[in-house]
Amino acid sequence: MQRVTKKDTNYNFICMAAKGKFLCKDAKVFWKAVEKGRGTHAYVPKLDKDLSHKPYIVDVDMVLTKEKYMTTAEFKTLYFDPLLVIVKKYFPKIECTVLRRPFLVKRPWKTDKSKIIWKDGFHIIFNGITVTKNVAKKIRSTFLKGGGVKQLIDVMPVIDTEELIDTKVIPIGANADYLSRRKRHGDLRVVGPRKQRT
């Protein structure tokens, strides 16, 4: 594990707590560091912006008009299962992990600062799957136009459906996901083969 200078391009992750770039060539050393510092560190992997295929991550920002914490069963039925139907058209057998924020965040709505909203967040990480930006956009568009979203907003007080799949996170956007300590609330796992591309 080696710290490099801010100008150095030869690095493979950034540590948010240490505020620096690091190069680690040994996977075991890296994962040991992640486990040891998970309470205080957040590691952001370096991803080449010119890669045609990037890891498939769905960043779910659920913007709510009132304080309603979604149960794991509700998330599975109202969001996860309808999304999986679409993703499985590209990848019939998948493995994924769902991480979520253990609480709602109360804040002014960015579209109208006079309104207070509650925000719930999930990250769906499709393990071993890489996709092009176009495929990720197509899945997003199909999901947002589908009946699953109507079913979701009938139950949850969602005010902004566009953020149900954030466009700022890879593979659609430029931001990488990060590894950090998270309390788990009903992680969902679907087991299947790895290393698929489309």
What does this structure look like?
It contains 4 helices and 11 strands, in the order E-E-E-H-E-E-H-E-E-E-H-H-E-E-E. It has 198 residues and is α+β, with helices and mostly antiparallel strands. The strands form 2 sheets. Strands 5, 6, 7, 8, 10 and 11 form a 6-stranded mixed sheet that branches. 24% of the residues lie in helices and 31% in strands. The chain has 2 domains: 2-45, no CATH class; 54-197. A hairpin with a 2-residue loop joins strand 7 and strand 8.
Helix share bin: 10-25%
What value does the average pLDDT take? 81
Q: Counting H and I runs of at least 4 residues, what is the number of helices?
A: 4
Gyration radius, rounded: 18 Å
In angstroms, what separates the terminal alpha carbons? Answer: 33 Å
The largest sheet, given as strand count, sense and whether it forms a barrel, is: 6 strands, mixed
Strand content: 25-35%
Q: Strand tally, please? A: 11
Number of structurally distinct domains = 2
Alpha-beta content class: alpha+beta
Secondary-structure element order, N to C: EEEHEEHEEEHHEEE
**Uncertain spans:** 180-196
- Rough shape? globular
Give a nutshell description of this structure.
With 198 residues, the chain is an alpha+beta fold. It contains four helices and eleven strands, in the order βββαββαβββααβββ. Helix content is 24%, strand content 31%.
